[in-house]
Amino acid sequence: MTGQRTNARSPTTGKPRAARLSVDRVLEAAFARVRSTGLPSLTMRQLADDLGTGPMTLYRHVSGRDDLLRRMLDRTVAEMDLPPVSLDPREELTGLVTAVHARFRRDPWVVTLVASEGLSSPDILPVVERMLNALKNAGCNHDEMAAAYALIWHYTYGEAIDSHRDGELDRVAAGMGDIDVGEYPTLAEMLCRRRGTQRRHLFEGNLQRLLDSVL
Amino acid sequence: MTGQRTNARSPTTGKPRAARLSVDRVLEAAFARVRSTGLPSLTMRQLADDLGTGPMTLYRHVSGRDDLLRRMLDRTVAEMDLPPVSLDPREELTGLVTAVHARFRRDPWVVTLVASEGLSSPDILPVVERMLNALKNAGCNHDEMAAAYALIWHYTYGEAIDSHRDGELDRVAAGMGDIDVGEYPTLAEMLCRRRGTQRRHLFEGNLQRLLDSVL
DNA sequence: ACCTGAACACCGTTCAAGT
DNA sequence: ACCTGAACACCGTTCAAGT
After folding, report:
1. Which 19-78 positions of A have CB less than 7 A from strand C?
2. What is the per-residue pLDDT for A170?
3. Are the beta carbons of A176 and B122 separated by less than 8 Å?
4. Domain assignment present for B170
5. Per-position b or e across B146-173, b if 16+ CB within 10 A of its CB
6. Which of A146, A176, A178, B151 could bond to A206 as cystine, CB 3.0-4.6 Å?
7. Torsion angle of alpha carbons B13, B16, B19, B25, nearest 10°?
8. CATH number at residue A178
């Protein structure tokens, strides 16, 4: 015997074999799977196949499917690209909300996870703290802070959920086929004119409008 | 033989037996199940059990699980208790959003359905049309209408999703155990003072604030 | 003709048997 | 000791056999 078989190298090729399973490797594969074929396709068995192992091997690194999803959510939140702290409340809030929004846009499937499981990741706390501080610095009292926080957060939330589809208006139209112009004239007119409006632009504008009313 | 066995009456008791299955009966049972034990417990097999029949019998009335869920969503939207049309834009918008919000609150599980499947129910169209008309009457041009519509809708959406839990702040705290006061002083202070704030009150206030900025 | 049981191809997870 | 295959109790749905 020339080498230990217990790790790292294939006895036949000598090439560094796919590293032995670890939580990170499992998560990596899970992200790849869900990104390419969606959340429902992320099953323990499929994931095991992707990693070239049996389903039970995964349970060495993850306590079950729920644990896997929680870890994916945690990692997603931790990966948020937060801007440096700004003392200007508007700049601070814009930066934070934009970062959250951008993260959700990169992995839209997370939002449905958040919607059904909640977003109680430890790494969201710094974001919350910074938002509250910005509101405080803007002169909000506690009631105002609570209200403003809820308003901003819920808007971001709703926008994110809606944005992993094509937007409410378009989708309503698509799902319905052609709208009855006689019955819904204003809606039909909107759908006709609004083509090409950028979602992103809409989000940025509305966020500023929200901040106008809050600050 | 004294009576037909094909329908309506039990041959043994003569009492009107549970009516033969129909889409309505299936939906009724599905709502009951999901209301009492949650969305994941709504399986074709469980539903069949609830109705005292075999799983396959359901497929006579519903083309599959997706179809069942879509019908439940449609019915939920159709059951919205819309207020009479008002010519005052603020009153009209307040009434509509409040109605949507109230419907979601009565069956919070629908929101996760909406989040993953979208809300493309035909019965949402009148609501959309009325919202757009109210914005038009308030003097919005098309771009403003699109923006204001998205803002209002996304806020309602996000609020609804969040509200079937205990609210973001509380939940974050609950999920985390005790917050590190040193690390997150503003958050800790908020959590301490905010106890007892009514969600409903917060929603109404924020909606008015939103309308202030939109109208 | 209408209805539905058995069967198929999945799923998450337990548990005991492998090395 | 560490790892994992077989088995269990589910799931939605097909399909052919019942009445």
Report:
1. 42-46, 55-56, 59, 64-66
2. 63
3. yes
4. yes
5. bbbbbbbbbbbbbbbbbbbbebbbeebb
6. B151
7. -110
8. 1.10.357.10
